[in-house]
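[agent] plan:
  1. take the single chain provided in the ticket
  2. run structure prediction with default settings
  3. attach C-alpha cells to the ticket
  4. add a short note for the reviewer (M.T.)
[agent] executing step 1
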Amino acid sequence: EALRALMSQGGTFVFGDLVLSTIGLTIIMIGVANWWREDLPFIGHGEQIATSAPFEGEHIRKAGLWVFIMSEIMVFATFFSSYLRVRTEWCTKWAFDEGKCSVGSTEGDIVLTASDYLRPGGAAGTGDFWTMLPGAVNTFALIISSYTIVLALKTAKSKDWEAPKGVLRHLLPDKKTAVRNYLIATLLLGSMFIVLKLVEWSHLVAEGFTVGTVQGSIFYVATGAHGLHVFGGLLIMLYLVFKADTIGYDEDNGQGIEYFGLYWHFVDLAWVVIFPAFYLY
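[agent] step 2 finished; step 3 output follows
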C-alpha cells in the first residue's frame, strides 16, 4: 500500500527512478561478482597494462581505482562544502555568547549541532568525555587500520620475510599467516568503527538530535555515507582474508591488497576531515 501510494504521487517518474536504480545496482553486483571470479585464482601473471595517457604503463585496475577515488572525493567534497555553507550561517551557542550572530538574534535562534551534544562543554550540556570517546577512538582505529593494511602489503611483497621474535612469533609464524592476520586486524578495527558509530548515533537520537532537522540531516547523511564506505570495505576485506587463507598473497599477486589499501586510505583520510568539522567545530 505504501509503495502504491508513493507511485501514485510521483507517477511514471518514481517508477522510472526505481527501475533505473535496480538496473544500476544489478550491473554493479554483476561487475563485483565477475571481479571476484577473476581475481580469486589470480597469481600475479597477466595483469592488464594501460596503453594510453595519462595512465600509460600503469595497471588498468589501479588506474580504474584512482578514477573511482576521484569521483568519491567529489561526493565527500559535496557533503563537506554543503555543511560549511550552512554552518557559517548558523547562530551557534558560542557565536551567540560572543555576540557574533546577526543583530536582533535571540536564544531561540541558536542552532545546536552534533558537536554540542558530543564534545565536553558543549552548548547542549550533555556532552562529556564518554560521549566524545567513540568518535575519538574511531579516529585512531582507522589510522591504525591503515597501518595494518600497509603491513599486510609489505609482508606479502617481501621476498625475504622472516618471522619476528618473541610473542609476535605466535601470531605471525609464517608469511602466509602473517598476511592473513594483518588483514584480520584491519577487519576488526573497521568493524569496531561501525559498532562505535552506532553507539554514538543512539546517544544523539536519544538526546533529540534527529535527521528531521537541517543540522541533523547533513550530519547523518555525511557520516552515514562514510560509514557505508567503511562497511563496503569490510565486505571486500572478508574476501581478502579468504584469499590470504587459501591461495595466499606474495610478491607476484600482492597488488590486490595494494589496490584495496588505496581505497581504505581514502576512507581514513575522509574521516580525518569529517571528525574535526562535525565533532569539534
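[agent] step 4 note for reviewer: The radius of gyration is 23 Å.
[agent] ticket updated
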